Amino acid sequence: MKRDSTPREMEVAPGLWISDLLCAWLPEERACIAADLHIGFEAVAAADGANFPRRQKPLLIRRLGAILDRHRPGLLVIAGDFKHNFGRGLRQETDEVREVLEYLDSRVDVSFVRGNHDNFLQNLLPEGTPYPERLVLGRFGVAHGHREVAFPPGAAGPTVLAHEHPSLKLRDAVGARSSAPAFLFEAGSATLVLPALSPLAPGSDILRGRLLSPPLRRLGRDGLRVIAATADGLLDFGPAGRLRRL
Fold first, then answer.
1. CB 103 within 8 A of CB 40
2. Tens-place pLDDT, residues 107-118
3. Is the dihedral of CA 58, 61, 67, 70 positive or negative?
4. Which CATH code of 2.60.40, 1.20.1070, 3.60.21, 3.40.5 fits the domain covering 9-245?
5. What is the pTM of this model?
6. Measured between alpha carbons, how far is 221 from 192 in angstroms, rounded to an integer?
């Protein structure tokens, strides 16, 4: 497929767009939603005896900057797992969380939804910053996705989740493997799942293995529409069930 024929943005439900910058875009609300930054991943890996180059923070700032430059949101929502360590922040993680917060504060209003990795994040946020497990933006609901969350009746529109880190992993006829972060969309429930913004968070193979997110396990794998975010734009592969049969 030619580069100029591959879309950079795609509307998956009325008013709900996805972007090859690994975020959702809600034009009516002037809001972008991104998730799973996992700041401090290298520090936690080092504490466990594995060393990674400390390159994630500048890459995350570039990715966040690209989102803000293209979509010009008035609000950026972080849909969980802003940080990585489950316990109190390691020194590197704490410093990097504060640096990314300072960068975002200089450019956009930010709201946070609590993820399962975000223990003690509130200690690093400005005093009084809301830190809910669900957020309602107009008719849209946002949650991390590590547990089932009920939304009030006013949020009757699509729900945006994260947590799964979905990726599409394929192998061609000669055995070469390729992988790309992917969005998942289930039309019946109007549920969108975001890929991880972190370049280091391993992607969960959407075609194989156990689904991590309880809401996705309830919906089932085969009806999930898989849209990969590639260097050339967004590629719609259709339902996961059809891909699995192929």
1. no
2. 999 999 999 877
3. negative
4. 3.60.21
5. 0.91
6. 13
